[in-house]
Automatic annotation (TrEMBL):
Keywords: Hydrolase, Stress response. Its cofactor is a divalent metal cation. It is an enzyme of class 3 (hydrolase). It comes from Artemisia annua (Sweet wormwood). Removes the phosphate from trehalose 6-phosphate to produce free trehalose. Trehalose accumulation in plant may improve abiotic stress tolerance. GO terms for biological process: trehalose biosynthetic process. This is Trehalose 6-phosphate phosphatase. Pathway: Glycan biosynthesis; trehalose biosynthesis. InterPro entries: HAD-like_sf, HAD-SF_hydro_IIB, HAD_sf, OTSB-like, Trehalose_PPase. NCBIfam families: HAD-SF-IIB, T6PP.
Amino acid sequence: MTESSFKMVMVRMKTKFYEGEHPSALSAFNQMINVAKGKQIVVFLDYDGTLSPIVSDPECAFMSDQMREAVRNVSNCFPTAIISGRSREKVFDFVKLNTLYYSGSHGMDTMGPALKNNSYDINYQRRSVDKEGNEFIVFQPAQDFLPAVKKILIEVTKRTQHIQGVAIEDNRFCLSVHYRHVKDEDYGRLEEEVKLVLANNPDFHMTRGKKVLEIRPSIKWNKGDALKYLLETLGYHKSSDVFPIYIGDDRTDEDAFKVIKERGQGYPIIVSSTPRDTVALHSLRNPSEVQLFLDRLSRWGSDNATTNHQ
Ligand SMILES: O=P(O)(O)OC[C@H]1O[C@H](O[C@H]2O[C@H](CO)[C@@H](O)[C@H](O)[C@H]2O)[C@H](O)[C@@H](O)[C@@H]1O
C-alpha cells in the first residue's frame, strides 16, 4: 500500500468512528425530537461556518435567502438566538431578522429579553428599544475593556501593516486578526507581533479560530455564559423542561456545547465535514445540512404547537 492510499484509509476509518460517535442530526432527527417532546426547545446558532459558508473575505460571508427563511421559520416556533464572534451589529446586518436575539463578540455583547431582576450585574446592563418599540436588555460584561480594545486596534494595525494579506476586523469587544491571505512564511512574524501586543496588554489574551487569531479581554465569559444568560432572561433558567439546541462549527462553540452537556438536557451539534475533537453529541456536515435540519425542526414545531413560544 502506498503512503497516500494508507492515509486515505486512515481518514475513512477516522470518519467512520467520528460519525459513529457523533451521528448526523438529520438521520437521528426523529429520535432527537422524541426526547424533546413536551419540553421547551430553545435554539442557539453560531453564524460563520454554520449559517453561512466559510469564504475568503469575511465581509462577504452572506447567508442565503433560503437559510434566512429557515432561521425565520425556526424563530417563529421557538425562542432563537445567534451567538457569534462578530460584533452584534454586524451579525444583525447579515441576518436581518427581528425575530431573534443576538449576541456578538463571543457572547460579550448580548441583546436579550427584558426580564426584570435577573441575577447578572446591573452595572453592565442597559435597556434598549428596537424600531418596533420592543424592549430589550443589552448586557456587556466586558464594557470596561472598550477603551483598551480601541487602543489595541490601533497598535495591532500598526504592528502588522507591513505583513501582506493581514486583515483586522473590529468585533467591538474583541478583535480578529485574519491571516487567510498571509503567506505561510510570514505567519510566524504575524503571531509574534500579536504576542507583543498582548505583552503590552496583559488583561487580554489570544484564541485561535479558522485562519484567525482573536484578541479578547480576559474575563470569565464565553459563548457558554451567553447561552446561560439568555436562558435565564428568557425565564427558563431553573426549568427542567427546557431543551437547548446549539449548532456551531468553531472551537469557541465548544464552551456552549459544554454548558448543554452539563445541564444534562439538550443537543450540542457540531458543523464539520471532517472528524473533530468535540464534546458535541451530533453532527451536521455543512451549512446546507444546517438548513435542512432547521427546516425539519420548524416543520415539526408548527405541527406541535404545545412547545411553541409566543
Ligand atoms: O462565532 P462565529 O460567528 O463563527 O465567528 C467566528 C469568526 O468568524 C469570521 O471569520 C471566519 O469566517 C470568515 C468568513 O467565512 C473567514 O473568512 C475567516 O477566515 C473565518 O475565521 C469572522 O470574520 C470573525 O471575526 C469571527 O470571529
